[in-house]
Specification:
The complex is a heterodimer of chains A (206) and B (86). Chain A is α+β, with helices and mostly antiparallel strands and 206 residues long. Chain A contains five helices and five strands; from the N terminus they run βββββααααα. In chain A, α1 packs antiparallel against α4 and α1 packs across α5. By secondary structure, chain B is an all-alpha fold. Chain B is built from four helices and no strands. The longest helix of chain B is centred in the middle third of the chain and has 19 residues. Classes of the chains: A alpha+beta (206), B mainly alpha (86). Chains A and B meet through α5 of A and α2 of B.
Chain lengths: 206, 86
């Protein structure tokens, strides 16, 4: 099975600190427990938004695997190749896209509450800085939509400080606030699709 | 409060779980939730790093007993204080 794995710079496991060997070298959980609890942790495309880190690798998994809500754990795995398109700049681009998605939710919240002119003002923000300022201003003006507006503001802040996972998290919760759990799921699907498209990931992979 | 519908943990819950997390004592499900939280929460990541550093520093102290007879020194100090200034 082909899947994906995020690592810290230098091929380090984000949580285990395990130093992954060169591409092509098998790592088996029973032989090297330092590689991770109970096995090799990996992502399907749909899991990517939950596990962002410095490096993204394509990984080949072997043997039976346990499937969790947002990850797969296999008995063995080997890195195949690094996804070179996943860079700091790409992570920033993704974070910004998530911030604009959070803005769309805030615009929707304003529209539903009948604040059409405020929605137009928020939609006019063209930079993250403008989004941040306008969302904060409107949050004070329109307390009935305050939480959606503060979510948009926070997402803009996270994008500006290069916190892509947090911007994505906020965007998903902003969607949940508007459309409930299906909104959250749809936003996470949008995020994984964005990553797959931007990184040209193989949709035939896990 | 835990958001059961999303299977997420909060920062407060992370702080409560961090020791068990370091010891590998959490269920697979809870450990996944903790790690998902760490990916997106810089504050808790910093907290976890600080906890790890503290644990490492304490381990580095070793388990050598303090020099001399601490109980005798403590008793002598207590005796001195009870007698007060002269």
């Amino acid at each position: 099975m082909i899947a994906y794995k995020f690592l810290r710079s230098g091929r380090l496991g984000p949580f285990s600190g395990f130093h992954w060997p060169d591409a092509g070298v098998w790592v088996r959980s029973g032989e090297d427990r330092a590689c991770g609890r109970a096995g090799i942790h990996a992502c399907r495309v749909r899991d990517l938004p939950w596990w962002l880190a410095d490096e993204l690798w394509e990984i080949e998994l072997e043997g039976e695997s346990d499937v969790y809500e947002h990850k797969i754990i296999a008995r063995a795995g080997r890195l195949r190749s690094r996804v070179e398109a996943w860079t700091t700049a790409c992570a920033d681009e993704y974070a910004e896209a998530c911030a604009w998605r959070a803005r769309e939710r805030a615009i929707e919240a304003l529209g539903r509450a009948g604040h059409e002119s405020a929605a137009v003002r928020l939609a006019a923000s063209g930079t993250l800085k403008e989004l941040r300022t306008m969302a904060g201003h409107l949050a004070d003006e329109r307390p009935d939509t305050r939480i959606s507006l503060l979510m948009a503001q926070d997402a803009a802040d996270c994008a500006r400080i290069h916190a892509a996972p947090t911007a994505a998290y906020i965007a998903a919760h902003a969607a949940r606030r508007i459309d409930g759990p299906p909104g959250y799921d749809a936003e996470r699907d949008w995020q994984s699709s964005w990553l797959a498209r931007r990184l040209r990931l193989d949709h035939g992979a896990a | 409060m835990r958001d059961e519908a999303l299977n997420e943990i909060t920062c407060r819950e992370f702080v409560e779980l961090v020791t068990e997390y370091f010891e590998g004592a959490l269920s697979a499900r809870t450990q996944n939730q903790v790690e998902e939280h760490l990916v997106m929460c810089r504050w808790c990541t910093t907290y976890a790093d600080q906890m790890r550093a503290t644990v490492a520093a304490l381990r580095a102290l070793g388990s050598d007993p303090p020099p001399g007879d601490p109980s005798a020194a403590v008793l002598a100090e207590l005796q001195r204080r009870r007698e007060g200034p002269r």
